[in-house]
């Protein structure tokens, strides 16, 4: 009796599945429904989705819809919401990728890493500031994804790589101060994004435009399980208008080595009377290119003591005290490279000891 009931249940289930399949196939075109049916039962793989079922697209997919180039006088304003935005992006790191390939795939980018939409007048002007030293491998992947990512958002943008000269201890925050000043000398940008070279955005709904408050864009990194590690975290990728940046006196100049400057910046936002704006966890996702700590960027042992003093030091250490020397300015096709001497912890030109 039990065996007979089991057979009937099996037949009823099979009939139910067949009815569902027939319903699916009859709603729209046969080809689309078949694809939909198989996606239901197939595990997401690296090409079509991820563990949480997000369907991902090629970041270059929508660029074919850019349309013809129009005369400047005939251009309408770009729509407030770009029709080219596609959502989640499939991110991998092909071993044979070259800068020449990145250049070939971005024919509308002009020297200096500058771009503006060919058929509409952009509503936003965004500069990307990338602190850098000895990360050419990571930079190649970031440029591969970032250029089409920004083009899909119909932005007028420029990419600035601020390269620290010499082998002295790395100072990420000071390089970003340099980037702010040098980028604003070239154009009246209305938004500046401060972008780590090893973070790749995974969703182009995370728009690279500024908000009413300083924006922390990299809210959900894969290394943190796509969660915000703590409330005041302001690391990875952040965005500020020029007014917001100056209101908090920019970033600190005295954090040499790894760690501490992100938290100092977060405190400065609060001390400047501002809040932190963030996208949703679903949208503000980033994949990190795995790597070890760089030589010359060892953990800063003073960072906790320095953070404890931020409330007393932020007005006297920042954009108003930054010192540096421009060594070279090179307008590459995909970015503007600014090589800069920012000195050492002892200063830009440490005084030589005199012997008596």
Please tally the β strands and state the result: 11
Tertiary shape: globular
Tell me the radius of gyration. Answer: 25 Å
Which stretches of 5+ consecutive residues score pLDDT under 50?
A: 17-49, 352-356
- Helix fraction bin: 25-40%
> Mean pLDDT score, rounded?
85
Secondary-structure element string = HHHEEHEHEEEEEHHEHHEE
CATH architecture descriptor text of the largest domain: Alpha-Beta Complex
Strand content: 5-15%
Distance between termini? 108 Å
CATH hierarchy class name of the largest domain: Alpha Beta
* Major beta sheet summary: 8 strands, mixed
The CATH homologous superfamily name of the largest domain equals Spore Coat Polysaccharide Biosynthesis Protein SpsA, Chain A
The SS-based structural class is alpha/beta
Per the CATH scheme, the topology name of the largest domain is Spore Coat Polysaccharide Biosynthesis Protein SpsA, Chain A
Number of helices: 9
Q: Count up the domains.
A: 2
């Amino acid at each position: 009796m039990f065996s007979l009931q089991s057979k009937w249940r099996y037949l009823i289930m099979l009939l139910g599945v067949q009815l569902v399949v027939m319903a699916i196939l009859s709603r729209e075109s046969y080809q689309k429904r078949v694809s939909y049916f198989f996606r239901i039962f197939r595990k997401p793989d690296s090409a079509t989705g991820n563990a949480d079922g997000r369907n991902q697209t090629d970041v270059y997919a929508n660029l074919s819809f850019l349309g013809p180039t129009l005369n400047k006088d005939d251009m309408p304003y770009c729509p407030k919401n770009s029709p080219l935005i596609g959502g989640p992006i499939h991110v991998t790191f092909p071993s044979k990728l070259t800068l020449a390939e990145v250049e070939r795939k971005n024919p509308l980018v002009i020297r200096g890493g500058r771009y503006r939409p060919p058929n509409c007048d952009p509503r936003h002007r965004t500069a990307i500031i990338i602190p850098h030293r000895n990360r050419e491998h990571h930079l190649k992947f970031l440029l591969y994804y970032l250029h089409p990512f920004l083009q899909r958002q119909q932005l007028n943008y420029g990419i600035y790589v601020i390269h620290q000269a010499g082998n002295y201890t790395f100072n990420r925050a000071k390089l970003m101060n340099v980037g702010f000043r040098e980028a604003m000398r070239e154009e009246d940008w209305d938004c500046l994004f401060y972008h780590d070279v090893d973070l790749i955005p995974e969703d182009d709904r995370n728009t690279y435009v500024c908000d009413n408050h300083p924006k922390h864009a990299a809210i959900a990194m894969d290394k943190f399980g796509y969660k915000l590690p703590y409330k005041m975290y302001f690391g990875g990728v952040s965005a500020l208008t020029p007014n917001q940046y100056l209101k908090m006196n920019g970033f600190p100049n005295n954090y040499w080595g790894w760690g501490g400057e992100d938290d100092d910046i977060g405190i400065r936002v609060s001390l400047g009377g501002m809040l932190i704006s963030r996208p949703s966890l679903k949208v503000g996702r980033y994949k990190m290119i795995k790597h070890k700590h760089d030589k010359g960027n060892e953990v800063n042992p003073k960072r906790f003591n320095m953070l404890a003093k931020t409330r007393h030091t932020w007005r006297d250490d920042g954009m108003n005290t930054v010192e540096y020397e421009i060594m070279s300015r090179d307008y590459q096709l995909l970015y503007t490279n600014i090589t800069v001497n920012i000195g050492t912890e002892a200063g830009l030109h440490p005084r030589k000891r005199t012997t008596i």
